[in-house]
Amino acid sequence: MHNAIVEKAAHYLDDCKQFLKDIIAIKSLSSEEGAVVERIAEEMRKVGFDEVKIDGFGNVLGRVGNGPRVIAMDAHIDTVDVGDPELWATDPFGPVEKDGIIYGRGASDQKGGMAGMVYGARIMKDLDLLDGFSVWVVGSIQEEDCDGLCWQYIIKEKVLDPEVVVITEPTNLNLYRGHRGRMEMEVETNGLSCHGSDPTRGDNAVTKMADIIKDIDALNKRLEPTPFLGKGTVAVTHIRSVSPSLCAVPDISVIHLDRRLTEGEDEALAVSQIENLPSVKAAGAKVRVLTYDTPSYKGTVYPTRKFYPTWTLSEDHKAVRAGIAAGEIALGRKPVVDKWVFSTNGVATAGMFNIPTIGFGPANEVYAHAPTDQIPVEHLEKVMAFYAAFVKTYAETN
Question: CA dist 173 to 252, 383, 387, Å?
């Protein structure tokens, strides 16, 4: 059976490549995924999925198998924008294959995972690997804007109730079992505006913020690493101010913080660390955790706090052991077991809902969001085999 899975993956490589190129060519920024959702649904029907549907949020879901036990596999299908087009050597939405690499926006993050899942599911059906299982392939939306929101909808609205989830974000064909959490905060200082010709008449909110930024930078350097996930971080990623004019002292200044959370760090700790900075206290600054409430492309609003929990799965968990065994089938060797640097929908499946979650995907995450966005063609073949094999190896661990 192992050889049959690998052979089927090689057989479907050209079809999988073409499907990937088709969906790269469809621009699908967060909240603008409607066209790519329809194209994915079309491919699912073409390859023989037993059921295809689009939920009330806008995620596209396809099922193979009819068993009572549910495995879900997830790829987000939205992408970030292009940035400066002059930095691209190829058309971001005109996929190019050269020297065994496919280039284009979303190739790594993460339409390659989507294509691999669809054809992995076809292999499951071809080889009758689904005894006792239903496997749901999920093309999820709005992850780039708000990771995990799509799965909050899926779980809370009872769209699916899986016993295990495979995240197909790029892992460079390694097996991942966790990553740091994250949260988004703002710090606001207030002052008194006055004419810029005599700043002493007012109270400059930006000047107050300068000391806070220095203290946050120092806090980042003090944060301690943990053995598996490493160090939490905090970074100032945006600053803005409000004043009557450019000839006036600003009376409001706001900074945006990207806080990454390692093991043992949570929302309360992260907020208190900022609130207790000497400069924050001296300025009487306000610290707040943000809320995301942008409508999906279907117009659905599903508000959530921008706190995304840290998660890990133990290396001896049956899902990890099944992933290692599936990797051995797909790769011909034991995969490296590691973690992501960035964040994924696992913040919801594992972090919020405690569903055992692992990751295995094509491409290297270093190309995510970059003008060199790319995926090796051979990775598509390997992940098709992995996804098909995982159903078999997961059944064998139970």
Answer: 47, 8, 12
Percent of the chain with pLDDT over 70: 100
* pLDDT band, residue 398 (cuts 50/70/90): confident
Q: What is the pTM of this model?
A: 0.94
pLDDT recorded at residue 304: 97
121: which 2 tokens? 């599911």
> Quick one: CATH architecture of 2-179+310-397?
3-Layer(aba) Sandwich (3.40)
Domain ranges of the chain: 2-179+310-397, 181-292
Is position 50 annotated as part of the catalytic site?
Answer: no
- The catalytic residue among 143, 251, 265, 365 is 143
Indicate if the pLDDT at residue 1 is higher than 80.
no
Backbone angles phi, psi at 347, to 5 degrees: -60, -30
Cβ distance 226 to 178 under 8 Å? no
- Taking the C-alpha atoms of residue 1 and residue 43, their distance in angstroms, rounded to an integer, is 26
CATH class of 181-292: alpha beta
Given 55, 74, 78, 251, the catalytic residue: 78
- Residue 74 is among the residues annotated as catalytic for this protein: no
- Give backbone dihedrals phi and psi of 388, rounded to 5 degrees, phi first: -65, -45
Distance (Å, whole) CA 80 – CA 29: 6
Q: What does the pLDDT average to over 280-309?
A: 98
CA distance 357 to 41: 24
Which contacts qualify for 193-198: CB closer than 8 Å, 24 or more apart? 193/243, 193/244, 193/248, 193/249, 193/250, 193/251, 194/248, 194/249, 195/247, 195/248, 195/249, 196/246, 196/247, 196/248, 196/249, 197/247
Q: Could you tell me the pLDDT band of residue 379, with boundaries at 50, 70 and 90?
A: very high
Segment (H or E) for 217: helix 205-222
Q: Residue length, the chain? A: 398
Average pLDDT rounded to a whole number, residues 25-53: 98
Pairing of strands 225-226, 230-231: antiparallel
Considering Cα of 322, then 328, then 331, then 336, what sign does the dihedral take? positive
